[in-house]
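Dilute domain-containing protein
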Amino acid sequence: MDAGDPATPTDASHPPQSPSEQTPRKLPDDLPTSLDDRRPFSSYGEETELYDGWQGKQPSQYITAPTPARALTFDLHLDTPAYDDEETFARIQDSDSRLMEMVAAQAHHREDGSPGQDEDAIAMDDKLSDSEKKEILQKSLNMAASNGDVARIQKLVGGRAKQYVDVNQPDEEGTVPLIYASCFGHHEVVAALLNAGAIVDKQDRNQWSALMWAMTNRHKQIAKMLLDHGADPDIKSSSGGTALDFVQPGSDFSHYLHENGYHFGASSLGDDFYNSGFSQDRFEEEMAENEMKRRMLMQESAANLESPTDLEVDEEEFIWDRCVGDQMFVFQADKLDAIFDLIITNMTPQRSPSQKPIPANLIFLMARYAHYHMTASLLDDVLTRAMDLINDVIERCQWDMTMLAFWISNATLLLHYLKKDVGLVQATSKYQLELAELINETFILIIRDAERRMNKVLDVAMLDHETIPGLDDIAFQGEWKVFKSKPKTKDEPPEKRFRPPSPKRRAQTSPRNITSLLSSTLFVLDLYDVHSVITSQILSQLLYWIGAELFNRVMTTKKYLSRTKAMQIRMNVSVIEDWARTNNRQPEHYEHGSTISTGETTVDAARRHLAPIIQLLQWLQCFSSLGEDHESLVGTLVQLQRLTPTQLIHAVKNYRAEVGEKSLPKAHMKFLTQLQRGEQSLIKRPLTPMVEATESGTTTPAGRNGTPAPTPVNKEPSTPQKASAPSISSPVEQDTDPPMNRNALTLDQSLMLPFSLPTSTDMLISYGAGIGGTNRERARKYIPTVPAEVLSKLNLDGDGRRRAGSIGTIGTTAQGWRNSAF
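Predicted structure tokens:
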């Protein structure tokens, strides 16, 4: 029934009311009364304990649930709190807001002003009621405490007005006078109030005590006074903080309280597992750790600055002119096989700096013991067996560049040790020659392994790869297409043609495969500390092989003798040039006392060895456009000094001319023929050795940057000779060229360039502290030592002393060596 319906007989008990007296019926509680039907989201409490059914009959069958992680907040403010400092940051903000309230209350008291007459007079005034006197004098007490008026405080709490004031009564803001005085740093007022009976732990409406305000505002004397009167530092405010939360560890305030006998480290935040920063005990530990870290950083910085540290001063210098007790390795003659099995036969190349030179270091220390304290026959036995085993390992791993680089590095370092030791340099001259031969053979094996890898992809990567797409559709003269031509594909739009190559196209074989192999070779050589002089010669030999192979394949393959193919190959060769510039190396080779290295750089080697193929490609691109001008021909030939007339004529005769492209005029061909016969001498002879060049002589072409006039690699070992001074001129003069056949068509890609070992000066600089002795870190790296791991494998303890069943030891005394070893 609606509210407006007329009364029915069933409503007899309720007499009808007039329309003005009728009231609407009450609506149900669950009926919406507004269009805003949003309801607050009800949050459910997290489970604090979970039943653990796996514990069976254990006493505790419940485990505590982990606390849900809180979402991180992102803020760009400089003072944004950390994740763990949220509560601390909230307390700091709370402190600031409370302080602003106190300042506002102080200003309010000043606005009220003083009562205008003496407090005693107000207390004795009969016109004022007791309630009015209490109100006036209480406000005066609060204002005096806030402003630091000690005289008025003493008069109020000790004079006639004493009965009308209460030192523990809060004002309208809920703050007692003691809190005002503690907040604003009025030390004498605090003392007067405490003497008058003020409750020291009285709190304001925010549950802040006087001690909290004193510590917040760093009032040390007031805080100490409150603590002396029994203030409780563990009282919590409405936000859950205590007075100790405002004491910064390590601050003057903290030290002041600590010196006065107040220690809060154990009671502050000791229960907080994750944040013990405010704990005094933990703070002292952190300070000690920070001090240790600071000392370590200072020591590291001193090492980086090459300043003498205590470690360097205490470190014993290796003596090369005599053998002292702990600078040799004492061994038993019948244990040589076990030692060499460990450091040679079963040795695996390691990357750590202390593990890489283990074979060279241990063999050298054994040689010192045999030479200085034993017999010459034992020295011969040690070095002979070591050389034989190293040769066996190299022969077994001749296709493993990692092993080859490891052993060429150790052989070079061992050769340096033998030359530097005053006593061994004469006694081991025969073995020094064997080491030089071993290094040379390993050098050749590294070259052959790298050439084998590059030869698999050289044609596809350098000769057939198309850097510029679309040049295969060019028609050549005299070439008939027997089969039906394929339908021409639609030209790609420029945006697709010139966009960067797709990943699929990048995965195809390209010049990047060759540069990747070069980079891998260089990485392995650097990884095992191969001397820079040897590394530069390896790169130079590989660049020569690449240039000679490309030259021969272009010269002997007709499909490459065209202008368009020459353009493609030239762009591919430029990738090798870019790699040489990016990975340019300067060998540490010094001559005649010079402090500047004079070896051939990688860029110079690439420029020298790639010159024949580059000039051949230039000749293929330009000779058809020379025309009848003889001067243009002569000017072009002068720039192509690395090509012989035979090679120029062969390229012209086998050239694939495009449709409509002119050939070289007959007059120019006649001139090239005269050059071939020796009737003309307008250009210099080429510098690159040819296939038919005589190899019986003892000299080979000299380098463009002054590399020594080399000798072919002989099977007999030769003592490394000192290189001659570098020359600034580019090509060598004609009288220094080796005799060669002018009719040679191809280059000798199998020719080994002259190989020279690093000189004694080079090794002293590279394996020592450098020029001026500034690089002490590198000098310590190449001191002959044996790591503790190797000593443990030899059944030695950490100090190098022999245990029962050991096979060697680090000697201590001459008599002890002989007694313990034999």
